[in-house]
Design goal:
- 2 copies of one chain form a homodimer.
- Chain A has 642 residues and is of the alpha/beta class.
- Chain A contains 19 helices and 38 strands.
- The first copy, chain A, has 5 domains: 179 residues, 3-Layer(aba) Sandwich (Molybdenum Cofactor Biosythetic Enzyme, Chain A), CATH 3.40.980.10; 56 residues, Molybdopterin biosynthesis moea protein, domain 2 (Alpha-Beta Complex); 74 residues, Molybdopterin biosynthesis moea protein, domain 3 (Molybdopterin biosynthesis moeA protein, domain 3); 79 residues, MoeA, C-terminal, domain IV (Beta-clip), CATH 2.40.340; 212 residues, D-Maltodextrin-Binding Protein, domain 2, CATH 3.40.190.
- Chain A is 26% helix and 27% strand.
- Chains A and B meet through strand 12, helix 2, helix 3, strand 16 and helix 4 of A and strand 12, helix 2, helix 3, strand 16 and helix 4 of B.
């Protein structure tokens, strides 16, 4: 059918919005029962067809009577009412036409034998009466077109007898996961060890989650295989039932990527490929009364297209329009905006808008941020993100110290948060949960022992930790710190040994390569994975190599670096390497065998001037927390200083 | 059983919170399937039990191969790979152990006959590979205790194979409406004319609405009658199944108000009666593992106790604590706070905290507000509220111009909003919906023609409207305006006749009292309802009385005032009066008969300097809107000026 034209391929998001604006029209308003109207938007003014209350009602429990007869009544000179001259009325009860006011029970006494009521206060006409129409009168505008139905309005409309409301229609959306490699979620969650090359169907949770946050309904179809005929007939069947169909994956440029061809076949393509990263392989089509969007399969790309294409379409179908300034922050659920300066430079791809995920912290009175991993498939960094930015097409490099505007995804407690940069230790990182309960928040960035001290010296973190062996003296850390901070180091810095930890060599269970000592690491049949330059563990390994006269150039895998103990241990576990230097707790956690080499102090370093920072205070207090300490003890390979 | 002690009766909200804090403990954490975890709060750190990806995966569709063999490949000197030296791999597919990189399809050409692949770019090891554990590695802390499950985290946890999560328990709540006068909602909505003394069960919509906004579940029980035994056995049956039971009504001090006695009977009362307005007749009790709260029956009181008692209890059961500073704005869903100055003084009840509902507007650069009707049963004003304030116990009178801090319930477009004060006209008020579409928002306050001009002269509104007959000259408005604004009136003010409207006498259908002229209004058997002093309609009536030499003192009902045409017409319709002066459109809308007396100009007045205000501009533009004009024409009794 219609071939997509050049000007609708590889286009900017703003151009895609222009196309959508032209094609997607507001759905006709729909009637909903008042009971189900919460959160809906009214499509017309609502005029009261009834008075509320619809009779003269008592505002309290008491006796209705004629106010004129109470004139002059006081506690010392009560006025008596014979039976028949008053009537008991409950709160909300109807007041007889012959009475005009209600006396509260506390201002009366009733002689039960004679039925005489003594009244000790004088009333005016209408006292304690809720007259007919007091809340809403017949003919009144109760609510206007465009108003959202709040709990109060919903209850008010029901009270006023409004049975159905004309509201803006909620678009009906279907999400279809596709792919031969996809395992249905329920099955996936039961798998002990999932087969390689297969993945769980988890994008539907992203879709459901955002739709729920947006208060739009969405149905999830079962996953369909990579077969254009099946996809085509499934779309043909469903395009009559839905206003919007989202197709997951099959969107790149490979053997199985037939989604777009099917859309071309069935309807009129609107655009294909966006100048956006991630999110490039997105497309949209008009299937005739139903719109289709192809969402890329990687989760971050999937999320990005949900925000920047799907949400704007929903706005068009529901409201008839959207505001280009606010549609993206609304879509991502931004809690606000913030201008931050970059803690590290960031290279962006020129010619593409780029979504960047940032972690934030306030240091030295300034709000700072650094980018988290940027991959299309990096879901963890989306989950960790404090703030998002969509860098413009023409951005190439953002250098350290330049400003970026973020949409904040959470409420950041700036004053309580600290950034830790330094040596990676999985036991130490568990302290964050305990510090949080003491009013602090600790963000960890593993940059190695030397990297941490350097960041601290540049004022780019609140605390660092290191375990750097001085191979001349056999001492730890002191000489490195003095070199970095100069002669005032002692005056400026506080140092505290967190614990001693076992360093050694991690090998697979049963030690299949028979590695017994450091010298075995130079063997031809042994491949190691190393840690990054500046890591204390690498410093230790280099020292041990020198002791054995081993030339690192002769060690296989010496140049392969991991930045954490877990990552290194993991590579050994999965057979990508035979050995790695690392700590005992990680070997234990991964079920690896461990050859101890040394015990080293893991030392926390921070500026003394920072001691009153709620984050530092909470961190220091947590070092003695029994809960954290027993968790560390259970991990193994740690010894306390006292 | 245990009698409630003195210090738990008639107490402040803050004291009630102290009692609740002591008694309501956090519920034990509960496991939920990851698919249902969206929005839940984690009760423990989540550690990855798996790598994500769990194999070396391709980041794109392409050919996997050994990067070393691509050295030097360029478009002009491609490198050839024989069949078997490469392998096709889909995005996300597994890369064989013998390969270390993936070349993108665009950088290759395949000879399908020989199976030879030409590669035109050189790769490095790991290129286009998502290594094992790239996103999340086995042993990594994925999320921490206290984190909320976002769409991204939910999807990430599923991807990492986390099947169940320990999360903070959601309290199970049951709401029980009570009262013999209550009609079930479904039945109520079917009633053409509801019987006096009966009301629809609509508070459950308030309860459901707030619980939904708070993301806590709630079940609604069928309404039970005013019978302590039924209530008691119903509570006994349900207190084992719920953490919190809310009982609607039966809370005042009357014949049917047995709820508290039942609570005393079944458990240990926590408090009764709050020093709060509305919301006083609230109580709470500990039923042994289940808490009960008695919500007053009037909707505003019901809402107030939901916010200030129920929501804090939910926070205690869920989070184990709440913050006294933020719990109320959280409960009401405040969009922010704002300091405003009062446009009218407000009298508060000394010795009670008082919830006041405000309507806001920006005039003369300052943010202002006036109180809406304050009754416990006034649901319309809750629905209309822009901002809420809880005035402290010791507040007596807040005079005009004093400041009040509001919790804003909506996002106010301050720059586009105008306040209209003046003569009431139901057709004119319908213009707001049309002005909104033109970028303005008009708030109406009916204060009568004279009241509007006075407010305008004091800078307390943006626009006014009047229809004031000068009984000396027969002219309308001019002499009143000159008296109010002095000789510069013409220079300062813009005037525009909106339309001419029919004034007359509204009587019941068929005119049962046989009223033929103004002079009939002085008859012994005729009772009128009047409009408030300063209303143009009253000025007209007084003028007509003078013409007929009628002494208002001899007109029955002359002192009974309504502030709107609809209210006055309504009183006639329901038989509380026999006649009222008013406009034809209202008589038509209410199905009343109408005796025409005069046609009058309804004139809009505003400062010329305000013409550029987006609200004034939208209002003026809307005066010519075809949609509004045809709506006015359908209402009847109006004539356009041109």
């Amino acid at each position: 059918m219609a071939l997509v034209e050049k000007e609708t391929m590889h286009i900017s998001l703003s151009k895609a919005w222009g196309i959508l604006r032209e094609k997607c029209r507001q759905l006709p308003a729909e009637a909903v029962p008042v009971q189900n109207s919460l959160g809906r938007t009214l499509a017309e003014d609502v005029i009261a067809g009834r008075n509320v209350p619809h009779y003269n009602a008592s505002a309290m429990d008491g006796y209705s009577l004629l106010s004129a007869l109470t004139a002059g009544a006081t506690p010392s000179s009560p006025v008596s009412f014979a039976a028949g001259e008053y009537e008991w009325v409950n709160t909300g009860g109807e007041i007889s036409a012959r009475f005009d006011s209600v006396v509260m029970i506390e201002d009366t006494s009733l002689d039960r034998k004679t039925g005489t009521l003594s009244v000790v206060s004088s009333l005016v006409a209408g006292e304690n009466v809720r007259p007919l129409g007091e809340d809403v009168f017949l003919g009144q505008v109760i609510a206007r077109e465009g108003d959202r139905v709040t709990p109060a309005l919903c209850s008010l409309l029901a009270t006023a007898g409004v049975k159905n409301l004309r509201t803006l229609a909620l678009p009906k959306t279907l999400y279809i996961p596709t792919g031969d490699e996809i395992i249905p979620l329920e099955e996936w969650l039961e798998l002990e060890t999932p087969p390689p090359g297969r993945v769980g169907e988890s994008n539907s949770l992203l879709v459901k989650g955002y739709f729920r946050n947006w208060a739009f309904p969405v149905d999830i179809a079962p996953c369909i295989p990579d077969d254009p005929n099946i996809l085509k007939s499934f779309l043909e069947e469903n395009r009559k039932k839905y206003d919007l169909i989202l197709i997951g994956a099959g969107s790149a440029k490979g053997e199985r990527d037939h989604t777009f061809s099917v859309l071309e076949d069935l309807g009129h393509p609107l655009f294909r490929w966006l100048l956006m990263k991630p999110g490039r392989p997105a497309s949209a089509a008009d299937l005739g009364g139903c719109f289709a969007v192809n969402l890329p399969g990687f989760p971050m790309s999937n999320a990005v297209i949900l925000w920047s294409v799907v949400f704007p379409i929903l706005q068009l179908l529901h409201f008839g329009d959207f505001d280009e300034e606010t549609v993206l922050p609304l879509a991502i659920g931004a809690a606000g905006t913030e201008e931050v300066t970059l803690l590290s430079s960031y290279s962006s791809t020129y010619g593409k808008e780029e979504w960047v995920r940032f972690k934030c912290v306030e240091i030295g009175g300034g709000k700072k941020a650094y980018a988290l991993p940027s991959g299309a498939s990096a879901l963890w960094s989306l989950s960790e993100t404090d703030g998002l930015s969509l860098l413009p097409l023409e951005t190439a490099e953002r250098t350290k110290g330049t400003t970026v505007n973020l949409w904040l995804l959470r409420d950041i407690r700036w004053k309580e948060r600290i950034l830790f940069q330094g040596s990676n230790d999985p036991a130490f990182e568990r302290i964050a949960t305990f510090a949080k309960k003491k009013g602090g928040e600790v963000i960890f960035r593993s940059v190695g022992s030397l990297g941490g001290l350097a960041a601290l010296s540049r004022g780019e973190c609140h605390a660092a930790a290191c375990h750097l062996l001085d191979t001349e003296t056999g001492d730890y850390n002191t000489s490195y710190i003095e070199r970095m901070f100069g002669p005032q180091a002692d005056a400026l810095l506080a140092r505290r040994i967190v614990f001693f930890r076992q360093q050694g060599i991690m090998v697979r269970k049963g030690n299949p390569r028979g590695i017994r000592s450091v010298s075995d690491l130079r063997r031809e049949d042994v491949v190691i994975v190393n840690r990054q330059p500046g890591a204390g563990t690498r410093v230790l390994l280099d020292f041990l190599f020198r002791g054995e006269n081993i030339d690192p150039g002769n060690v296989r895998g010496y140049e392969n670096c991991s930045t954490t103990h877990f990552d290194a241990g993991n590579k050994v576990l999965r057979g990508f390497a035979d050995a790695a230097a690392g700590i005992k707790s990680v070997a234990d956690a991964l079920g690896l065998d461990f050859l101890p080499l040394a015990e080293e102090p893991y030392e926390l370093v921070y500026f003394k001037s920072m001691e009153d920072h709620p984050g530092i205070a909470a961190l220091l207090e947590s070092l003695n927390d029994e809960g954290w300490r027993s968790l560390v003890d259970r991990m193994g390979g740690y010894r306390w200083t006292e």
